């Protein structure tokens, strides 16, 4: 009679039906994605250097350049990548208003063939 009251784990009722492909979740190791960073990396840690990024300042605002001319190819080439793409302002540090004027000037100079649309191969 005592054997009838105890049940094996396979006979215990489950709270929710499981599908056949169910795999229980295992904890992630501490060093992989989402885990702790190793010491000495850019995030800091014991013995690591602090990573300091200086705030980028708009070149046009500091030099007080109001008009960005489409004819100034040397200036515009500094804001065009090697492949011909316009470099985003998060990389150049140009403010929003000057980035808009800059992109318009680059597009105008491309249209009249002062700047190339793409890199030469």
UniProtKB/TrEMBL annotation:
Stored Pfam families: Ribosomal_S18
UniProt-listed GO biological process terms: translation
GO molecular function: small ribosomal subunit rRNA binding; structural constituent of ribosome
Region (Disordered) residue spans: 1-49
Composition bias type Gly residues, residue spans: 31-48
Keyword Kinase attached: no
A single Gene Ontology CC term: cytosolic small ribosomal subunit
Biased composition regions of type Low complexity, renumbered to the chain: 1-15
The UniProt record lists the keyword Metal-binding: no
Keyword field: Ribonucleoprotein, Ribosomal protein, RNA-binding, rRNA-binding
Domain of life: Bacteria
Function according to Swiss-Prot or TrEMBL: Binds as a heterodimer with protein bS6 to the central domain of the 16S rRNA, where it helps stabilize the platform of the 30S subunit.
Family: Belongs to the bacterial ribosomal protein bS18 family.
Record note on quaternary structure: Part of the 30S ribosomal subunit. Forms a tight heterodimer with protein bS6.
NCBIfam families: S18
Protein's name according to its UniProt entry: Small ribosomal subunit protein bS18
């Amino acid at each position: 009679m005592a054997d009838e009251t105890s049940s094996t784990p396979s006979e215990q009722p489950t709270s929710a039906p499981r599908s056949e492909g169910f795999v229980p979740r295992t904890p992630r190791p501490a060093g992989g994605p989402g885990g702790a960073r190793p010491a000495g990396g850019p995030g800091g840690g014991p013995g690591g250097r602090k990573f300091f990024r200086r705030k980028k300042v708009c070149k046009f605002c500091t030099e007080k350049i109001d008009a960005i001319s489409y004819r100034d190819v040397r200036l515009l080439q500094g804001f065009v990548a090697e492949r011909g793409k316009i470099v985003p302002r998060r990389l150049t540090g140009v403010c929003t208003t000057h980035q808009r004027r800059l992109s318009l000037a680059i597009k105008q100079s491309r249209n009249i063939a002062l700047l190339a649309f793409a890199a030469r191969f």
